[in-house]
Amino acid sequence: MCEGGPVDQDWEDRVTAAWAAFDADPGQDGARFRAGIEALAAELPAGSPLALFERGCAWDSTGHSDRAVPLYQEALARGLDEVSRYKGRRTRIQLASSLRNTGRAEAGVALLTPELDAPSDELDDAVRACLALCLSSLGRDREGLSLVLGALAPHLPRYRRSMAAYARGLVEPEGGAG
Predict the structure, then answer these.
(1) Residues 6 or more apart from 14 whose CB is under 8 A from it?
(2) Are the C-beta atoms of 33 and 22 separated by less than 8 Å?
(3) Measuring CA to CA, which residue among 31, 33, 54 is closest to residue 43?
(4) How far apart are the C-alpha atoms of 147 and 170, rounded to whole Å?
(5) Strand, helix or coil at 2?
(6) Contact assessment for residue 122 and residue 157, using Cβ atoms and an 8 Å cutoff
(7) In this predicted structure, what is the pLDDT of residue 6?
(8) Between the CA of residue 16 and those of 22, 64, 124, 139, what are the distances in Å?
(9) Is 176 exposed, middle or buried (0-12, 13-18, 19+ CB in 10 A)?
(10) If you write DSSP's letter for every residue of 126-161 in order, what string do you get?
(11) How many CA atoms, within 13 angstroms, populate the side-chain half-sphere of residue 2?
């Protein structure tokens, strides 16, 4: 999986446990949490895209988007998609959000737009939600609302067709929603 050897299930379980503990305690000290993630990341080979990803997530989740951006970018540059397509996609979502938070929403749009055509998975709605936020930051609210309504429509017990049509109508020329 990772250059220098596979990441074992024990390591993945410890990372998952660290994140679960962080999520369960909103008052947890960010520096202490980042130190724990750093210790886990340090177990991987130098330059590991997984280590860079986890470090970026830790900085991002503790309110430091500016510190997360270069880590996410390096994780992708070092081949995170080859190690884990799922984590690569998560990185693009989180990187786009961090770019938006640091005043670079246009770069977030450029990063996420191709994800609309990527193979479908459980992250599809997150792609659309984050892309909608980036678009809104650029004053493109109708496009963002269209994405959010389109993502929401399949989850509704009723009104799926009409909500999907309304979503299309927000961005298609007059009369395009049918």
Answers:
(1) 40
(2) yes
(3) 54
(4) 9
(5) strand
(6) no
(7) 55
(8) 10, 21, 22, 37
(9) exposed
(10) HHHHHHHHHHHHTT-HHHHHHHHHHHHGGG-SS-HH
(11) 22
Q: What is the pLDDT of residue 75?
A: 98
Residue labelled with tokens 């895209």: 49
Is residue 128 packed enough to be buried (19+ CB in 10 Å), middle (13-18) or exposed (0-12)?
buried
Q: Tokens at residue 48, please? A: 């590991």
pLDDT, tens digit (0-9, with 9 covering 90-100), for 17-28: 999 999 999 788
Alpha helix segments (H runs only) across 7-140: 9-24, 30-41, 49-61, 65-77, 80-83, 85-101, 105-112, 124-137
Phi first, then psi, for residue 105 (nearest 5°) are -60, -35
d(CA 67, CA 161): 42
Q: For 55-77, give the secondary structure using H, E and C.
A: HHHHHHHCCCHHHHHHHHHHHHH
Report how far residue 153's alpha carbon sits from residue 124's, in angstroms, rounded to the nearest whole number. Answer: 13
Cα 94 to Cα 127: distance, rounded to the nearest angstrom: 9
* Cα 63 to Cα 60, 69, 71, 125, 128, distances in angstroms: 5, 12, 14, 23, 22
pLDDT at position 7 is: 73
**pTM for the whole structure:** 0.88
The 10s digit of each residue's pLDDT in 33-90 is 999 999 999 999 999 999 999 999 999 999 999 999 999 999 999 999 999 999 999 9
The DSSP bridge partners found for residue 5 are 2
